[in-house]
Amino acid sequence: MNKPVAIITGANSGIGFAFAHALHAQHYRLCLADIQLDNIQTALPASDQLMFYTLDVRDASAWKNMTDSVVQKFGTIDYLVNFAGIVQPGFVYNVPVSDIDRHIDINTKGTLYGTHAVGAQMKKQGRGHIINIASLAGIAPVPGIALYSASKFAVRGFSLAAAHEYAPFGVTISVVCPDLVKTPMYDLELQYREETALVFSGSKKVLTPKRVVAEILSVMKTKKREVTIPASRGFLARLAGAWPWLADVVRDRLVKKGLRRIENIRTGKN
Q: What CATH number does the domain located at 5-183+205-241 have?
């Protein structure tokens, strides 16, 4: 019996890289997509159960071409997991317009294009599961990464709405909202002390890609519509999102905590 087919975007690094390894170990048939593929191509040996696809998620026609290529090779698509994304910290009054475009084009439009292209194939099949990766910053607004926060609010809202639209056709859409994860994005955010103070104001125990991968594997089984990682921080994010004035009450304290945390990480004390 053939193993399921999964498309993974953002497979060249971070959580996507770890997730590709996890499904590869379970002998899934995979399409691993990213704008660069050097790391994942080096890490996983080529085989007839594996295809690599150079994908710019900002290009809707590229999504359509990739979807067609996967169906031509494997005959079906069971999962799409959208990891591809960027973050560029910065206060809105300091950022160039190009940063606005990058966040919306990659994080938001990339996810929408992918859901649209692959969702059409899944609708035709009468089954499939799309998992979009948002963020706790898509539930509670995070000053200092406002562009990222906006892009992930859009991903979350889109995913929850689209889930209702696709459900009658046997297609499931889930959205996963992690806290800070130790990936190349984490390393970048450490370089922007003032802007990312709130990002680093949570638990000292930063999420690992392995932990997030485990949660996503669970979502593939349970088909939950939305999952926050960890659930405790997700609860706090929902409170802050529902009542923004609550964040004003504790923001100064959290900023100070985050600044201390960043300094400790930089000096090796954490």
A: 3.40.50.720
